[in-house]
Every structure is written in C-alpha cells, then in structure tokens.
Amino acid sequence: MKQLVLVGGGHSHLFVLEAAAQGKLPGVELTLVSPEARQVYSGMVPGYLEGRYDLDAISIDLPRIARRIGARFVEDGAKRVETESRTLHLESGGTLPFDAASIAIGGVPTGTTLPGVAHHATFLKPINRVLTLLPKIEETVRNAGPESLRVVVVGAGAAGVEVALTLRTRLDRLGATHSIITLIGASHTVLHDRSRKAAELAEQALDRREITRRMATGVEEIGADYVRLTGGKVLPADLILWTTGTDAPPLFRASGLPTDAKGFLLVDDTLAVPGIPGLFGGGDAVSMATAPKTPKAGVYAVRMGPFLARNLAAHLAGRPLASYTPQDTFLALLNTGDGRAILSRGQLATSGRWAMRLKDRIDRGFMRRFQRLYA
Asked: For the whole model, what pTM was predicted?
C-alpha cells in the first residue's frame, strides 16, 4: 500500500478526501494531518459572525470523514518536510513516511510582527481561530462600561469589510447598539483589488451601517486598549480584529522547499513541487510558477481541489498529470450583514437581497457536498 499524506484540511484537500470516498485512490493508505479537528469554511465565517449560521453549518468534521473513508486522522501540526527520506516531521515530535504528500495549510496574517499585534489583536487566520472569536466578542460586550463599545478592524479588503459589516449585526443583537466600529486600510479605498463599482457599493454599505473608515493609514503599534496609527494618532479600542492579507507559513523555508520570493510553496501547473516527485500543494499556501499573480482567495483553492485529487491519484498510479490554469476573473459575493450581498465579477458589480440568497445557496451547497461524506 502506498502512503499518501495530506497536510491540512483546507478547501483543496476536501476534494482529495471525496476522491478517496469514491474509490479513486485504490491501493493507497491515506493520512490526514491537521492541528484542528474542525475545518471552518471561510466563505461562511462572516455569516457565522452575523448570526446567520451556527458552527456546525460552517465546519467540516475531519476525524469523522477520515473514519468513514478508512483514512487515518492525526491531530497535529507539520514542523518540517524531509524530502530525501520522504518524511513529515510533526510538531509533537512524531514522524510520518510518505510516497506522496500534499500541503494545503493556508497562510498566516500579515503584520503580526508589529509591536503588540501578536499579544493584543484578535485574528481570523488561520481560519480556525474564528472558533474563539464569538466568545471573545461576547466577553467584550459583557465587560463594557457605560461608554460606547469601541471596535477597530484592521484591513479593508473583502475580509475586513465583511467582518465590520456582519460584526455590526452581531453587536446589535447583543445589545451594543451604539458601538463605534472603525475600519482601517492601508490603501486609498476599500476592496482595492476589486472594481471601482464594487468598492463604491461596499462604501455605501459601510455608510448605511455607520462604520467609520480610515484609509491610506498604517498601524504602528497595538496595545491592550488602543491602536497607534502611522503618524502617532491613537484610537481607543475595546476589541481589535486583525483581517489583513496573507503571508507564507514558515513550514516551507524551514524545510528547504522551493518557494517564491515571499516564502509560499512553489508549484507548477500540475500543482506539483518542481524537482521533488510526489510532493504537491494547493490553496493559499502555494504560488504557481506559471501564474504567480493568482490571488490568495478561497475560490482558487476550491478550483485547485479536483486537479489536486486527480494528479495525486495519477502520480501514485504512474499516469500523466493534468494541468490547471487559474481563471482570470471570479465571481465574488460579499455579505453586508443586512440581508444583502455585493456580487462582483471583473468590472461588473451589483448588490441586493437576491445576491445574498445566491451566496447562501452556493455556500450551503458546498458544505453539503462534503458533510455528506460522513452524514
């Protein structure tokens, strides 16, 4: 039996687990390694924060999938990949040999080395940190005094905008209706990587929900109850949410694996690591040599999944590998927390309640597909 090790339970690897359930990996012993037993679906996290979904609706039970498909689940983190001996070293000190391995562990938030950030900010990446987010919000509301609750969201991309908007809904439900939410972004506009129309719709939604914006602004330091902006201005804060972009996890450089200039695992158009037969990767953790500007977005991790499953099976069976070409544009649906969503694709952007219904249908359909593996 050949040994296949999946490192991380991310979007891309769900398709590999599905392929195993469908008998498409014959003669293979599969081991899934993840530091978390629940894999949270990032697309539904804002809805979870809003109160639209509960934890079961947005998460995949990895040990249950493993049991149902006859795989082994190891609740641990990856420390180092040793390519010569084809061994994965675990954070606990254990090791796992492999004939083929794939890494889909996502990224880490940017800016965590700034003074105070690691100690005082609340993170959404890795995505499973959201499991501690609601208790933190509820505790903050309980401990708030008579003054308005002050919340600062750092990062004005899609994640930051969605978090600010859906957090407003959650705080209203908790009775903190006069909370002051401030969104901080380094760029001159929100959603800087989307069309101008999408940014305008997002700004309108932020205005409706009375969310203050401080754009073209950096952060110098985080304290227990403040955010110091570039230039020295201090914002008081009872809760600081860190929703910045994606940096590479340290695993790849620690293992001496091929990386791009930023430290992301380098893969070719088959999602294989050049020069290391049997090692693959997908999702936000990788950078494609043939498409280095591919965004770190969940939609690309999902699109990589079927190719990753196909190519792992092909490699283990000695068959040719298929090439994956990322699409130039993608459909994005942003939850505005008020029953509406912003739909954008390329230069097209619109919004409405129908868009939120569409987002809900797509997200629930995605989760049903993989929760069905252990239902």
From this structure: 0.93
